[in-house]
């Protein structure tokens, strides 16, 4: 069954202060054929390469209103099959309360993402991203494995 809310592709989007900055990051990724892991917004400062499982058609709506949505990414990125990401150690994150982080085994803590829909004044809910992470400082890839994502 085909559903518009599911996808078999994962996207690593770039960010920057401008579209030009994000495009330059994408060009660097493509030229070097690698994604560098980061620690931003990852509790425990684990170094991960992150992906979004949200279908590209749904991302288009968010990216069109990125400022209002508080979305830091730009419409440039690299897309891979779920199988490629999984084979390289990628797994979906675990959304939960802050206290649940300490309950996870150390080997899984890198996957924890805060979820607090009752937080006031601002709820914390990024479950729509359907994030996946690979615990790694660097993910190398071949051109055959990647699809380049541009705004149009």
Would you kindly provide a written description of the structure presented here, covering whatever features stand out?
It is a single chain. The chain has 152 residues and is α+β, with helices and mostly antiparallel strands. Helices cover 26% and strands 28% of the residues. The protein has five helices and ten strands. The chain starts with 8 loop residues before the first strand and ends with a strand. The model has no long low-confidence stretch (mean pLDDT 91).
Compute the separation of the termini in Å.
Answer: 28 Å
Instruction: Please state the structural category.
Output: alpha+beta
Number of strands: 10
Spans of 5+ residues with little confidence (pLDDT < 50)?
Answer: none
| Tally of DSSP helical segments | 5
SSE order, one letter for each helix or strand:
EHEEHHEHEEHEEEE
Radius of gyration, taken over Cα atoms and rounded to an integer in Å:
15 Å
The helicity comes to: 25-40%
Gist?
The chain has 152 residues and is of the alpha+beta class. It is 26% helix and 28% strand.
Itemize the secondary structure elements and their pairings.
Blueprint: E1 9-15, H1 19-32, E2 34-36, E3 48-52, H2 56-64, H3 66-69, E4 73-81, H4 82-87, E5 91-92, E6 94-96, H5 98-103, E7 112-114, E8 131-135, E9 138-140, E10 147-149
Parallel strand pairs: 6-7
Antiparallel strand pairs: 1-4, 2-9, 3-8, 4-10, 5-8
Q: What are the defining features of this structure?
A:
three-stranded antiparallel sheet; globular; 10 strands; 152 residues
């Amino acid at each position: 069954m085909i559903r518009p809310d599911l996808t078999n592709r994962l996207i690593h989007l770039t960010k920057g202060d401008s579209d030009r900055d994000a495009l330059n990051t994408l060009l660097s990724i493509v030229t070097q054929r690698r994604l560098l892991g980061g620690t931003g917004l990852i509790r425990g400062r684990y170094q991960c390469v992150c992906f979004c499982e949200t279908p590209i058609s749904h991302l288009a709506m968010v990216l069109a209103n990125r400022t209002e949505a508080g979305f830091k990414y730009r419409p440039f990125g690299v897309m891979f099959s779920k199988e490629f990401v999984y084979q390289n150690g990628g797994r979906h994150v675990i959304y939960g309360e802050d206290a649940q982080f300490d309950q996870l085994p150390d080997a899984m803590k890198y996957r924890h993402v805060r979820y607090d829909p009752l937080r006031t004044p601002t709820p914390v809910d990024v479950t729509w991203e359907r994030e996946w992470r690979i615990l790694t400082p660097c993910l190398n890839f071949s051109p055959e494995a990647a699809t380049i994502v541009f705004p149009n």
